[in-house]
Amino acid sequence: MKANLKALALICFILPILTVLISYIFSIKLDLVAACIPNFEGCTSISRVGRYPPIKYFFKPAMYIYAAILFFYWFHLLKCLENFKINKKYISWIALLSILFLILYLIFLGESKIYSFFRRIGIYVYILLMVLTQYLVSKELYIHYNKLKSIFTYNYVRIIYLLSNFLIILGILLLPMLIIKINSFPQIKNIISWNYFFLIQLYFLLSYLSFKKN
């Protein structure tokens, strides 16, 4: 169980980041998007990177696989917590809803007018629920660490908890910039999205490191 969770956490970090990077590189080569360092320049969005053929035929399947692995990660982790009498069913439902919105976003990515809803609203619901899931899980790990110290390393559990708190606070502060149109600095939304995406995935790398080897 522990080895599987450790591997799943690492895949949840690597797979989406690698998918986005590969898609971006090939989108540049095919002149589908502008070339820049998007985390600092915001010349394109993550959605645009995976929206157009033929790139979407790689981007979508890879992200579907990520969604499936993400489901198994939360499912097995929460089952693991149940073994220590930490039973929080509502976290499972929040995690499941976040994955559902991710899948809906991928289904309609660049496919129809319905996509505009998932680009503007649905993707933010996924991010909100994902960050909330990360926070609730990390909170349980932090509060009940004495029960879980045979599995987790305290320093990383603490860092994960701090990161999840930071993501919620940062999300609240940055939300107005994502909703309001800023004509003087239109790239700001893309810059926020790229960096926030990385921080969300960083959570899984830290989770991978939090599992003890033995």
Topology of this structure?
Elements: H1 2-29, H2 38-41, H3 46-49, H4 56-82, H5 89-107, H6 114-143, H7 145-148, H8 154-179, H9 188-210
Helix percent reads over 70%
Number of DSSP E strands: 0
Largest sheet: none
What is the element string, with H for helices and E for strands? HHHHHHHHH
Beta percentage is: under 5%
Content-based structural category: mainly alpha
- Report how far apart the termini are: 12 Å
Count of alpha and pi helical runs: 9
Radius of gyration: 18 Å
Q: What do the pLDDT scores average to?
A: 90
Q: Any low-confidence stretches, pLDDT <50, length ≥5?
A: none
- Shape descriptor reads globular
Structure description:
By secondary structure, the protein is an all-alpha fold. 77% of the residues lie in helices and 0% in strands. The chain has 9 helices and no strands. It has helices spanning 2-29, 38-41, 46-49, 56-82, 89-107, 114-143, 145-148, 154-179, 188-210. α4 packs antiparallel against α5, α5 packs antiparallel against α6 (114-143) and α6 (114-143) runs antiparallel to α8. The longest helix has 30 residues, at 114-143. The chain is globular and about 50 Å long. The chain starts with a helix and ends with a helix. The mean pLDDT is 90.
